[in-house]
Amino acid sequence: MLKGFGARGSYNHRMPTIVRLIGLILVGLAVAPAGSAAAAAPTGAPAGQPDNVPCKIVEQAQPQFPRQLLQAGVSHGVVRVLLKVSAAGELADTLLTAYSRKAFAEEAQRVIKQWKFTPGRAKGQPVDTIIDLTFSFEVKEVLVAQRFSQDPSPAMERFDGFEYHAANVESLDRTPTPLNVVEPTYPQEWIKEGITGRVAVNFFIDETGQARFPIAAPGAHELLAGIAVAAVQQWRFIPPKVKGRPVLVRALQVFDFDANPAPEAKAGP
Predict the structure, then answer these.
(1) Are strands 249-258 and 12-14 parallel, antiparallel or unpaired?
(2) Which of 3, 79, 94, 259 could form a disulfide with 108 if both were Cys (CB 3.0 to 4.6 A apart)?
């Protein structure tokens, strides 16, 4: 359980008392806002180029249908994976979120390491980007389906027949217990500028207890989203488990940034 905390002075950042787990999967493309810890490269876009563009995969090694599965009579498979592409266009991290067979996941990871990217830009600046990819394997050919969206409502998915996927909250042995919670760093000058609001951060907790791939939901102030995401990225938990076995799980943390001080609790009537 996460205990609430507040900042000194007239700024109060109140956190919910628990990390709320949801049975939703992250979808789409998330570009880190300029000014956040994930944003980089302050130079503007070259003349004639749009200020806001998504990250692009410019070179793709094509995956092959695993021979051992073909020989075993398997006709199709699916892999879901998140990629983090840095502002320099380098593959910085990957996270498997679901797969029907491990051999499909291994093949997807093998080819992803060979891909080349051009970084996305926001307001003319290169930024880190998170891409949600779906690989669909079929006997005759391999289809790589890329879905880019900024839909604030993550889509529900069915995982019938999947060998691996993020656990449902109902199946966890207990709510993940935080081991390290870093507070968002809120500059005092933002108080005078009236920068307040709510930020919902979707993220995964992996089998080691590390917070992975935090993404701020659309609609939040970009500066608040930046400090919220940067904080969650440093969180650690006791590994979530199902029947004693560590699992991947989806999580949601809501931050309220309020410039008004919270009322002091009074003892007695």
Answers:
(1) antiparallel
(2) 79
The CA dihedral of 168, 97, 143, 121, to the nearest 10 degrees, is 120
How far CA 54 is from CA of 36, 60, 157, 217, in Å, comes to 17, 17, 24, 17
pLDDT digits (tens, 9 = 90+) for 71-86: 999 999 999 999 999 9
Token pair 């996927």 in the structure block, residue: 165
Count Cβ atoms below 10 Å from residue 254 Cβ, excluding itself: 15
With beta carbons less than 8 A apart as the criterion, state whether 97 and 105 touch.
no
Query: With the CA atoms of 88, 90, 92 and 98 taken in that order, what torsion angle do they form, in degrees rounded to the nearest 10?
Result: 130
Q: Per-residue b/e over 49-60, b at no fewer than 16 CB within 10 Å?
A: eeeebebbbeee
Q: Exposed, middle or buried, 158 (CB in 10 Å: 0-12/13-18/19+)? A: exposed
- Spatial CA neighbour of 106 closest among 79, 146, 143, 139: 79
Could you report the per-residue pLDDT of 85-138, keeping only the tens digit for each? 999 999 999 999 999 999 999 999 999 999 999 999 988 889 999 999 999 999
Amino acid at 121: R
State how far the Cα of 253 lies from the Cα of 198, in Å rounded to an integer. Answer: 11
Helix (H, G, I), strand (E, B) or coil at 49: coil
Q: How far is CA 98 from the centre of its chain?
A: 14
Assigned token pair, 36: 């956040």
